[in-house]
Amino acid sequence: MKTIHQKKITQEAIIIRHMRHTRKLSLNQAGSLVGITGSAVAHFEQGRTPISRARIETFLEAYQYSREEYLEFFDGDTLPINLRDECLGIVKHLDATKLQAVHAVLVNFMPQNTTGISFALARASSNNSAATKKLTWPS
């Protein structure tokens, strides 16, 4: 398998990922069905490894899709947008100022019982106007 450094997420990769998600398969489960690692599946889906026609056929068989169903996605069947991926893609291109604004909004959506230092610090910094207040570790 040839891994490339520059990602190129193709329509094939998007469709293969969508098919895996509709079958509710984890990367490792999909890898087991196809005979590769979950990491290798991720590389195909993320455009790090080109997907050959033979590999597409293997995925289709493992995910129990027909070639016709696969081709329908090229002929106009719209794939649902993966909002998490779409948002992460947008965030990756933001400058520091815009990222800070997005962070301030997102922190407010976090449940109050979320543990972890980054969320605790974010809540503390967004709730405290004075920078001199003492921050404590979450319990």
Q: Can you tag this structure with a few keywords?
A:
434 Repressor (Amino-terminal Domain); mainly alpha; single chain; elongated; 139 residues; 2 domains
Explain the overall architecture.
The protein has 139 residues and is mostly helical. The chain folds into 2 domains: 11-74, 434 Repressor (Amino-terminal Domain) (Orthogonal Bundle); 83-127, no CATH class. 57% of the residues lie in helices and 0% in strands. The protein contains 8 helices and no strands. Helix 1 runs parallel beside helix 4 (53-63) and helix 2 crosses helix 3 (38-45). The longest helix is centred in the N-terminal third of the chain and has 12 residues, at 11-22. It starts with 10 loop residues before the first helix and ends in a 12-residue tail after the last helix.
Q: Termini distance?
A: 45 Å
Query: Which stretches of 5+ consecutive residues score pLDDT under 50?
Result: 128-137
CATH topology name of the largest domain, in short, is 434 Repressor (Amino-terminal Domain)
* Alpha-carbon Rg, integer: 20 Å
- Helix and strand content put the structural class at mainly alpha
Give the helices and strands, then pairings.
Blueprint (H helix, E strand, L loop, with lengths): L10 H12 L4 H8 L3 H8 L7 H11 L3 H8 L8 H9 L4 H12 L9 H11 L12
Helix pairs in contact: 1-4, 2-3
Q: How would you summarize what this structure contains?
A:
With 139 residues, the protein is mainly alpha-helical.
